[in-house]
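FORM 7B: Structural annotation worksheet

SECTION A. Query
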Amino acid sequence: QIGVIVVCPREGDLTVYSAQSGIARLPASLRKSWMTLGTFVNYDVIRQDTDSRAVWVVRRVDNLGLLYEVIDYPMDSSKLLLSLYAVVNRVSLDARNAWLWNDIIGRIFVPAQQFIHGLRAMTCVKIVVVWTGAFEDVPWSATHVEVHGDDAEIRVQNASLLRTDDNWTVSNYTPNQTSFHAFMKHPSYGCAFIAWTDITEGDTPPRPDTKCR
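SECTION B. Predicted structure
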């Protein structure tokens, strides 16, 4: 898998993140001189159980260089900022938030301060993102957003994994006041976990056995 070094202290373990497996610990014993904040790597991971949880640990790593431009942040050199393209995944107009997707770094949150008109599902954007690590499923936040509109080339190069698919059936769900979680099944792909985090007021989740795209 491909990931990026998101935490790089002067000594000790590093932290790598990929859209496929999330956060992984890169042991100090594997450190090399070329490993810097924002360097992309190809690596394998193994599961390691701790007292509180299971974590991924890097066991093989190859240098891929800088796949995206690293933006200097003089106020805090430990923060990773990248400039890249992404595709809008979901928009909440009421909350003025959006969620973006990039095949390499995964999900990106657009806070209200960076929300701009023109953000629609599948719209292409040029963004600057910062690693926050606040939530493992959405560990990046946008600090600058520029809408590029409908651009098939950007989608193919940066978000080919973000696509629609038919014949998914809701098997069960757990409703909450503002969100719900569910499981879906597909005749070819098996089961998948889904979560809606920003239901519009008045919307209801799909019932079990409902066909979805």
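SECTION C. Observations
The mean pLDDT is 89. The longest helix spans residues 152-158.

SECTION D. Sign-off
Analyst initials: ____
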